[in-house]
Amino acid sequence: MRRSSAQGVLYGQTVANVAGIANSDLECMDILYLEGRVTAGRLAEVTGLTTGAITGVIDRLEKAGLVRRERDEADRRKVFITVVPEAIDKLSQFYVPMQQAMEKVCNGYSDEELRLLLRFANEGYKGVLAATEALKGLLDTPPEKRPALKLKTFRQP
Questions:
Q1: Which residue stretches, if any, does this entry annotate as coiled coil (predicted)?
Q2: What is the pLDDT of the chain when averaged over all its residues?
């Protein structure tokens, strides 16, 4: 799983390089795509980046034609960031080889096995979310006062 996760990061970096944007900007694009229309503050909250850093990301993505800023009709002071639909088409093409490879892998499993794998992936995602929140909780604790983390080894199948 660690190798697959690391390779996913490397694949994303390659996509970013081919697309001519920074990897962190590509990750923000992915979050925007998943979250939908959001404010810069929400994007900062989700990514853990500062609002200043997010402004830079949005500026670069807007300059690249990948996102746009839209004023809220009800409150003109509020600005939403939205993905340009054509940008998703542009970026999606770079994921075709990965999608084809994963379809080939999935075709080797029965429906029952795929349901188990999907359950595993969903539960794993929830575990990563919980672990991320727990680790973020340490940010407000001075390093010298942080509890030691205990590493548990996994049982081998």
A1: none
A2: 90
